[in-house]
Design brief:
63% helix, globular, 173 residues, two-stranded antiparallel sheet, mainly alpha
């Protein structure tokens, strides 16, 4: 496996649009989510959500979803639960004038079902990390982060499995 977000440079972001115009800033936001501290990652997630998920999805949304899945699966990302929540927001959003963007964005979220199923069931890695910590507060923080990831993953998994919208054909499970 390559570097986190390594393939991001292959996307013509300047040709894509988000809610406020050119998506050329999306790679910077994804990078802040990947490598920023907690507050930096949270701010970037909030901004990115406003750009690509609320109130609508865009062609930049479709391009960003695979990278969001990559971030959700990367244990060093500070706000993995927030990434999963953004993916859920994308699945719940659409674009009335561009149903093809809606379907493509939803398909990209649904394509990550194996990842979210693993995250919903996987407690071992964070629990092992927490056990390795010597300070009780650090252990408690790691356990709380893992629980937040699991909870967000369970909600997203249910949303994927129950997803129905006018832009997407019914799915066989």
């Amino acid at each position: 496996m390559g570097t986190v977000l390594g393939e991001m440079r292959n996307v013509p972001w300047h040709e894509l649009q988000h809610a406020y115009g050119s998506a050329s800033q999306v790679p910077g936001m994804l990078s802040r989510i990947a490598w920023g501290d907690g507050p930096t990652a949270e701010d970037a997630l909030s901004d990115l959500g406003q750009w690509i998920a609320a109130p609508a999805v865009f062609d930049a949304t479709v391009a960003a979803v695979p990278f969001l899945w990559e971030l959700a699966a990367t244990e060093t990302v500070k706000d993995r639960a927030g990434v999963l929540e953004l993916l859920a927001a994308i699945l719940a959003s659409g674009h009335d004038l561009h149903p093809e963007w809606t379907r493509a964005a939803h398909d990209a979220v649904v394509a990550g079902r194996p990842t979210v199923a693993r995250l919903a069931a996987d407690a071992s890695s964070a629990e092992a990390e927490a056990e390795a910590q010597t300070h009780a507060h650090v252990r408690a923080q790691a356990q709380a982060r893992q629980q937040a990831v699991r909870d967000a993953a369970v909600r997203l998994l249910a949303a994927i499995d129950g997803h129905i919208c006018a832009a997407c054909p019914p799915r066989a499970l």
